[in-house]
Amino acid sequence: MPLVGTLAIFAIWELVVRLFRIPIYILPAPSEIVADVAAVWPNVAMHSWATLETVLLGFAVSVAVSLPLAALLALSETVSRLVYPLLVVTQSVPKVALAPILIIALGTGELPRVVVTFLVAFFPLVVSVATGMQAVPPELIELGRALDASRWKEVWRIRLPFAVPFVFSGMKVAVALAVVGAVVGEFVAADKGLGYLITTSMAFFKLPLAFGAVILLALMGIGLFQLVVLAERVLFPWSASSTTVAS
Prior knowledge:
The chain has a single domain, classed as MetI-like (MetI-like fold, Orthogonal Bundle). It contains 12 helices and no strands. The two termini are 19 Å apart. The model has no long low-confidence stretch (mean pLDDT 89).
């Protein structure tokens, strides 16, 4: 059904453009977008791969940082009160405004774009994981302590397994936001990537190519989201089924 709905939207889009004879520099038809993208597909594929690399690196760093940080927030109320406001501050700062500063500090290479992607993606993940770890029933925590479980075993054997649905919920949001973060970094300073392709296409009034890059970004976000869903179903089928029942 989602595929049918998407195809219907593109069909209506094509019909409206042709029926009302909308100029290509205002709104190109889907057929024109496909033709322009296909004409330079090797170049578009190179830019797509560059953006995908940035997205995956930023997302991987966000996962690596969020899980231990969420454990600290869940285990220590003092750390939570100290760190949580700082996390909110980092999320409140517009990343478009922060990107030029990072580029000046870190250079014009891949690193600032990965940092921007990480900053966009990690906040919902760390909040979701911390919420899941704090939602463990008190009876389980008391049972673990009665069995002389250390704080590390409490996290590894009790809190983290209970928080698995929360982890994957946060990862689904984070991987979609990682695409946004990568494009923000590419808008500011880049020599490759779909964000760079959009800015250069608009500068030369190649609107169909810019629309094609936007569509590819949407497909990239959907594909990565579905990969996280698939990983949850394969690795933790009980978590995926419980999430489906709850929804």
